[in-house]
Specification:
Order of helices and strands: HEEHEEHEEEEEEE
Number of strands: 11
Helix content: 10-25%
Strand content: 35-45%
Structural class: alpha+beta
Number of helices: 3
Radius of gyration: 25 Å
Length: about 200
């Protein structure tokens, strides 16, 4: 019995699919990894936010000192920290990148520091000579009432106050000014640095 061209084509397609399914087990089998959770096990951290630069991921966190120092307050956070990895398995503690004192050098009132959830972004900034250089900006709340920004030359800081003497957002507890996040709009043209829009949400 002769098969029509359509039936031959259908059988070839069916055979190809069968072979693909049969061989897919070794093609897409998941690879076992040796990472552990939590990724940070030596410090009480919270509020992680990531930033990828080249082949490295940086994760920024707050540090909760409540359990470490036995304070009675419900939250005692003074600093922001950074951890880095190239393979999502091995992590490096980059240390403290900023402290509530970065934005509040005058009061030294630890009860009001409250360094909460942060975000770090990379953005090109035009220099005096007209060239563009990538800087790293830490947007962070403190005191439960204020949000400010610090700047550094690299992702791990240290970050310095970018607006000394003033804050991006300043208000009372009723405003609940905490936990900022940032979106940079390049309008589909990432090389047109001058026309970036930067949006702050909190």
């Amino acid at each position: 019995m002769r098969l029509s061209r359509k039936k031959i084509t259908d059988r070839v397609i069916s055979l190809s699919l069968a072979l693909a399914v049969a061989s897919s087990g070794w093609v897409i089998a998941p690879k076992e990894a040796g990472a552990e959770n939590p990724i940070i096990q030596t410090t009480y951290t919270a509020d992680p936010s990531p930033l990828v630069v080249g082949d490295t991921m940086y994760v920024y966190t707050t540090r909760d000192e409540l359990k470490e120092q036995k304070y009675d307050d419900w939250s005692y956070m003074n600093e922001w920290r950074c951890y880095s990895t190239k393979d999502m398995i091995n992590w490096t503690d980059m240390g403290q990148i900023a402290h509530a004192e970065t934005f509040d050098k005058e009061s030294n009132n630890q009860e009001n520091w409250r360094a909460w959830a942060q975000q770090v972004v990379a953005m090109p900034i035009q220099q005096a000579g007209g060239t563009w250089e990538t800087k790293y900006f830490l947007f962070a709340p403190f005191n439960g009432t204020k949000i400010d920004v610090a700047v550094a030359d690299n992702p791990w800081g240290p970050f310095e106050d970018a607006t000394p003497g003033k804050y991006l957002i300043d208000g009372g507890w009723g405003g609940g000014n905490i936990d900022p996040t940032v979106y940079i709009e390049d309008h589909g043209n990432p090389d047109d640095y001058a026309n970036y829009y930067v949006y702050l949400y909190w």
